[in-house]
């Protein structure tokens, strides 16, 4: 399949996914909550810029499980499998051959700090989903990191256009301590929902709890509802 055929395939599958999940995405709290808790001007999706309980910082604190894996690009791989029609395994060159996007969004950590207007570069999760074609049974994903971490996300959240797998932040390659070479970002959820050092995305036929969710963190993680713990 040449580049143009692959791009056409992604666009067609992307539109089908959008139609399938558009209504659910529009009804999520970070899009439709009529009483969001926060302060400041409205952000890009209509919520107060700073969610309740958050403090804005220009620094980017480092949080991890005590281990920062070092994955050379020639050894890095991303598996995408589970409830999909076409499971696949991408090497770095395959990832970089996909449509690349630049976006600016906010980063809200459950430990009460927020970094605003972060410029990112990477690949939309929706485009990866379009490649593997989720089955009708798929409702959630589980994202796994090279550090042993895992976290769950509903598809109506994961398929939003600002959910990216990023390799660039602030105009530079994503630093290792922040999940480089590749991590997921979830601007409309608390940031623990975006796995660092991501190595596998599993599509699920139902919800399962990830690392922090099993330890008392919220299953849904909506910042504008102070939805930190279960």
TrEMBL record:
It comes from the Bacteria. Residues 69-212 form the Oxidoreductase molybdopterin-binding domain. It holds the Pfam family Oxidored_molyb. Residues 22-50 are annotated as: Disordered. This is Sulfite oxidase-like oxidoreductase.
């Amino acid at each position: 399949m040449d580049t143009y055929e692959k791009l056409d395939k992604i666009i067609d599958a992307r539109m089908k996914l959008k139609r399938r999940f558009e209504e659910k995405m529009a009804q999520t709290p970070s899009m439709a909550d009529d009483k969001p808790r926060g302060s400041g001007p409205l952000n890009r999706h209509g919520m107060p810029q700073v969610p309740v309980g958050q403090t804005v910082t220009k620094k980017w604190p480092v949080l991890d499980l005590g281990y920062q894996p070092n994955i050379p690009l020639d050894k890095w791989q991303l598996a995408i499998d589970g409830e999909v029609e076409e499971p696949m395994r991408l090497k770095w060159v395959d990832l970089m051959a996909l449509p690349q996007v630049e976006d600016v969004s906010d980063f809200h950590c459950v430990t009460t700090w927020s970094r605003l207007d972060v410029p990112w570069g990477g690949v939309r999760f929706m485009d990866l989903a379009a490649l593997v074609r989720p089955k009708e049974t798929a409702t959630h994903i589980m994202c796994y990191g090279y550090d042993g971490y895992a976290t769950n996300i509903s598809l109506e959240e994961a398929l939003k256009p600002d959910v990216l797998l990023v390799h660039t932040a602030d105009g530079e390659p994503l630093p290792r301590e922040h999940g480089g070479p590749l991590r997921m970002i979830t601007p409309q959820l608390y940031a623990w929902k975006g796995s660092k050092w991501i190595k596998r995305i599993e599509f699920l036929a139902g919800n399962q709890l990830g690392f922090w969710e099993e330890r008392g963190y919220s299953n849904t993680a909506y910042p504008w509802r102070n939805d930190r713990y279960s």
